[in-house]
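Slide 14.
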Amino acid sequence: MANAHASIASISPAELFEISQSKGPIELIDVRTPAEFREIHATPARSVPLDRLDPVGLMQNRERPDDPLYVICRSGSRGRQACEAFAAAGFGDQVVNVEGGTLAWEQGGLPVARGKKTISLERQIRIIAGSIVVLGVVLGAVVSPWFTGLSAFIGAGLVFAGVTDVCPMGMSLARMPWNQAGGDSATCSR
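Slide 15: predicted structure.
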């Protein structure tokens, strides 16, 4: 295991793949939305969305409880949040975050499963936040200066998300139907 970030163990995708090849199957959970998982995921991963994560229940139902549980997301941030939830539940020494997430896994040329393309949660947040900011500015110029408060509110939310690494808008969007496994509204062709 390569490093620890705020007492969370981490491992590179290449190291994890090597372990899976030399020691056999690993337990890897992907904490992104079901739609993101459906688009692309590391082949050994199974979907356990962060907004539905039950650290105690998951740890109690493992087939190999003595083996590490590896956590992956898009780029590492949500994986770290999931590891922190496991640590808060008393399982911190049993979970390992995959550095760089699925992006690093794919860039490393490691095996992935591909499905239907979707707009990532991160892009959805940028689209909605940007749209609300523009709307606030336009309404502030045309209707009433009070509407600029809408832009300020979104700006404050983005600062909060940046400082705390917790995004209420992202957590809400993750629960939307188009971000679930059966959702089709956020698909794109690229």
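Speaker note: The longest helix spans residues 121-142.
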